[in-house]
Amino acid sequence: MAHFDTEYQRLEASYSDSPPGEENLLMHVAEGAKSQWHHIENLDLFFQRVYNLHQKNGFTCMLLGELFELVQLLFVVCFTVFLANCVDYDVLFANKFVNHTDSSKVTLPDALIPMDVCSKRIRDNGFVIFVLIISGVFWLHRLVKFLYNVCCYWEIRSFYKNALKMSMSELPYATWQEVQARIIEIQKEHQICIHKKELTELDIYHRILRFKNYMVAMVNKSLLPVRFRLPVLGEVVFFTRGLKYNFELIFFWGPGSLFENEWSLKSEYKRGGNRLELADRLASRILWIGIANLLLCPVILVWQILYAFFSYTEVIKREPGSLGARCWSLYGRCYLRHFNELDHELMSRLSKGYKASSKYMNCFLSPLLTVVAKNVAFFAGSLLAVLIALTIYDEDVLAVEHVLSSITLLGVCITICRSFIPDKHMVFCPEQLLRVILAHIHYMPDHWQGNAHRYETRDQFSQLFQYKAVFILEELLSPVVTPIILIFSLRRKSLEIIDFFRNFTVEVVGVGDTCSFAQMDIRQHGHPAWMSEGKTEASIYQQAEDGKTELSLMHFAITNPHWQPPQETTHFISQLKERVHREAAGAPSETHPLSLSESEPRSLVANLLAGPSTLASVHFGRDSSLINAAAGLSDGASALRSLSPVSSSLHLRGSLSMAQRASGFTAKAMSGSGTDARTVSSGSSAWEGQLTSMVLSEYASTEMSIHALYIHELHKQQSRGELSRHTWHRRESDESSDSIPDEVRSDHNPQSKTFPRSHTFPTVVSSPNATSASSSNSKGQEEEKSQSQRRHSGPATGIYILKTFHFYGFTANMQMKKLKIKESD
Where are the membrane-spanning stretches (predicted)? Predict the structure, then answer.
């Protein structure tokens, strides 16, 4: 497929993961030889359940979790009706006198209305009856779904036990990569998919994330979510769970959706001839779903308020400052998500950047607000101190009306005020903080760098990293705002949505219809400004924005090191890793010449790592474990603590000394069996395997952070003087292929054309040093290879671990290690 003109395309063998000659393979197995798992019809749903069961730590935990969700729903409805109709609040608040023959104290049963009176009040209230009927129908639906899921997940439990040979007790300690490796291995025996002889990591990711990849692509192309410009707040992005649910209902699985099943787009949406008719049909469907949301708005709004009240009241009482805490918004999670990135991978990455993001947002505390908060905290603290002193002197003070309430409110007020008072010992460096954030989240508009101190950058970052209170408020307003967005905003994008699904859907053999961006193909969706110049044939409409294709490709390759991409993709990955590794060595130019031209910095990685780096090697003997690597791993503990909150609680040196005794980490196990070192969790103890997998996963995360920083830094150097395009600058006219001239759409090198462009389009200038950079790259690779052969005898495979950082006030002295797995004769 050379380019996306107007028609849906079938992805041929050049993209297929099937071996040559097996593209249309259909496996036939004799009836007697078929296993229980032969030819699973809906592999998307099957792999999603396998993944969900792993993430929920086994069948029992999953069962209890869903059971308690049913109980919670029943409790919220029944308890709310009880509070509204069966409690005498006059007695509870002592506004009504109660006669007692044996005691003068008012007890809790005195405040309860008799059962017959309570039942009559419920029957006479039409709104309560309506709510109970709707809630009952919804609860019965959830109950049927729960029973169905129990049967389905029991089958998945059997699959883990019988096919994967994994018990539920060891599932919480196994990594997903280990489960995935076993699935790929049993494909040869059980033929789960009959259309391919062998499964790959990308096949499994495509099936689990088929619809989520479409959502990530639509966010990347600014098709979703809808943006508003309000008079006081400025540009606002509204993206809630309720709105996301409606998007998925319209596009993927609801009645009349664009997909006829989980893996196939409807045939009429694959042709461009009737696009206008399909757009009208989609607009009409969006209108009816918006009207349905409008009719159900009162019920959903009441439910949202009650659920938020029961969920957050206790948390706010215990930690009043929790509303001032921040969280990654739903829009932020979609914008920052790589193509083919699972939920746990995304949340792990964002969690590592949480601390630096919070520190960055705290740099913008208002000095005026700080002065007010200090004085309000002083006055509130004075009153609270007096009340506490009086209570200590005589506990009867608590019996005075509103004294206990005043103590509680004053404590809440002081806690809130403290959240606006910065730590006087903290030194803030916004630019360095933003660099640390970029190392973890991997995506950032170009104009943020160098402008980290500006409030415009802070406001745009707050769309990704919002207050918890704002998140709760948006969810509460979602039942009201969602129908407005569907009826008045999304309907106008119906033609662009139809064009998007037609132009960016490809059929992959053995997988079905997938988002073409999820193929992570540099040639089809690379961006010339993101290290893809000369390698991509994509037009502006086809290019993924913000380096999404390149960064997603590197993330997937590092996360799944045994994945075998196409030859062009392999060359891109190896070339990038070689450049990063060679520059990170930090040696003088006469010893390790760089491949960069004179217009580029001498060593981008050296600028990023701001400290000396050495290149060391660690050997693994045939029967040894991680004994020799332990010193290198423990040397990097300080940097891992700064990069991840998980590792900060681990005593790596002592724990790794235990993990060294695990017999599963021999060179034979890692290089001979084909099992990745990051996924091995065997040993005498599940804890040892989990610990070692965690540590090795940290190094993979660090490696990706360095590559992300390097790609952004190189992009920054290449795009100097060019006007960049990003989410905050792109116009709606950029989103449709109709806005791109035909001569540009059909040209493989669109930047060479001269045509009228909007001011948001980049002016790409070809680099005159591209040829020289390429030749020096190949020369540097040969020199590095010869030096490596002189230092180490025999074949070796390398795992690059980059571990030197200098970020916002700390220097982490991690050296760059190139772990060499060597087999002695």
Answer: 59-84, 127-148, 286-310, 364-390, 402-421
What single string gives the DSSP state of each residue in 259-278? EEETTEE-GGGG-STTHHHH
Separation CA 497–CA 218 (nearest Å): 9
How many angstroms from the chain centroid is the CA of residue 806? Answer: 26
* Cβ proximity of 448 and 438 under 8 Å: no
pLDDT in tens, 672-706: 333 343 343 344 455 566 666 667 778 788 889 99
Q: Is the pLDDT of residue 755 over 60?
A: no
Looking at this protein, which amino acid is placed at residue 512? G
pTM: 0.75
**Position 800 pLDDT exceeds 80:** no
Helix, strand, coil shares of the chain, percent, nearest 5, are: 60, 5, 35
Secondary structure (DSSP) of 651-697: -HHHHHHHHTT-GGGSHIIIIIS---TTT---SS-HHHHHHHHHHHH
Using alpha carbons, list the distances in angstroms from residue 439 to 185, 353, 365, 434, 444. Answer: 34, 8, 24, 9, 10
Please tell me the distance from the alpha carbon of residue 659 to that of residue 681, in angstroms, as a whole number.
Answer: 10
Cβ atoms of residues 448 and 461 within 8 Å: yes
Q: Among residues 193, 164, 195, which one has the least CA distance to residue 180?
A: 164
Whole-Å CA distances, 338 to 49, 86, 343, 710: 21, 52, 10, 17
**What tokens appear for 294 in the block?**
């409008």
Q: Three-class SS of residue 518?
A: helix
| Paired tokens of 492 | 């106008």
Three-state DSSP at 256 gives coil
Work out the average pLDDT over 495-502.
Answer: 95
- Integer angstrom CA distances of residue 718 from 144, 441, 600, 657, 767: 57, 21, 8, 46, 8
Residue 19: is its pLDDT beyond 60?
Answer: no
Q: What is the pLDDT of residues 144-166, one digit of tens each?
A: 999 999 999 999 999 999 999 99
Task: List, in order, residues 6 or more apart from 365 with CB less than 8 Å away.
Answer: 420, 421, 422
Query: Torsion angle of alpha carbons 359, 361, 364, 369, nearest 10°?
Result: -90
